[in-house]
Amino acid sequence: MSTESDITPTAADRHHPLLKLALELGPLMIFFFANLRGQWLVETFPALSELGGPLFVATGLFMAATIISLVVSKIVLGHLPIMPFVSGIVVLIFGSLSIWLQNDTFIKMKPTIVNALFGVTLLGGLAFGRSLLGYVFNAAFQLDAEGWRKLTLRWGIFFLFLAVLNEVVWRMFSTDTWVAFKVWGTMPITIIFTMAQMPLVLKHSINLETDGEK
Fold first, then answer.
1. What pLDDT does residue 137 have?
2. Which residues are bridge partners to 80 per DSSP?
3. Helix, strand or coil for residue 37?
4. Which helix (H) or strand (E) holds 82?
5. What whole-number distance in Å separates Cα of residue 142 and Cα of residue 34?
6. 73, 93, 119, 122: which has the fewest C-beta neighbours closer than 10 Å?
7. Residue 131 above 80 pLDDT?
């Protein structure tokens, strides 16, 4: 099994950008709508009642969708993207614990664990002189060393911010509010943050084909 490990994007990544996006966001959308229509799902598919309430049904479907997403990524793209792969492992572990113990705390803490893990990893890598973000965004950007260093620092801090934000939301608000924020809050915040990095990306972008000709 191979994961994305090269800063240079693969041909599959270039040819299937929308598929890659769908595979990463698809499980999250299924989680949201399954929680929203949990009672209907249980009435329509009685076997799902074995999982528990709406959130646990949504968690089970989230886990299944995550596995399918990773399998399709491996087959079509030829590798497992690092972020969805790590996130998928945490989803399976914490999702299983949530359903088994009928305790939604585990699945609610999953974003905290994942974001904190990414944040600490990125900032820790910088401490050892490694800009690890290139291994995550290899299909999107090609930057010089200074660009990757600055972008890695910003994303590391942003991931820690998301971890803290998730803790605040799930501890202070209802489950439905947390699920809605996980999809409709976290996603827009991440998009806005990503767009805010474009001046840095453009400033430090390099042309791989031009550099190769040189």
1. 64
2. 3
3. coil
4. helix 82-101
5. 37
6. 93
7. no
Query: Other C-beta atoms within 10 Å of 196: how many?
Result: 11
Cα 82 to chain center, whole Å? Answer: 9
pLDDT band at residue 37 under the 50/70/90 scheme: confident
Which two tokens mark 206? 């390099």
Q: How far apart are CA 177 and CA 167, in angstroms?
A: 13
C-alpha–C-alpha distance, residues 44 and 32, integer Å:
18
d(CA 129, CA 122): 11
SS3 80: strand
Contacts of 36 (CB under 8 A, 6+ apart): 179
Cα–Cα dist 140/152, whole Å: 14
Residue 18 token pair: 């929308």
DSSP secondary structure, 166-212, as one string:
HHHHHHHS-HHHHHHIIIIIHHHHHHHHHHHTHHHHHHHB--HHHHH
Distance CA 38, CA 126 (A): 43
Q: How many CB atoms lie within 10 A of CB 116?
A: 18
pTM: 0.71
The average pLDDT across 87-112 equals 89
Choose among 202, 184, 168, 203: nearest CA to 29: 184
Kindly report, residue by residue over 158-201, the tens digit of the pLDDT.
999 999 999 999 999 998 899 889 888 888 898 899 899 889 88
Assigned token pair, 177: 């509010």
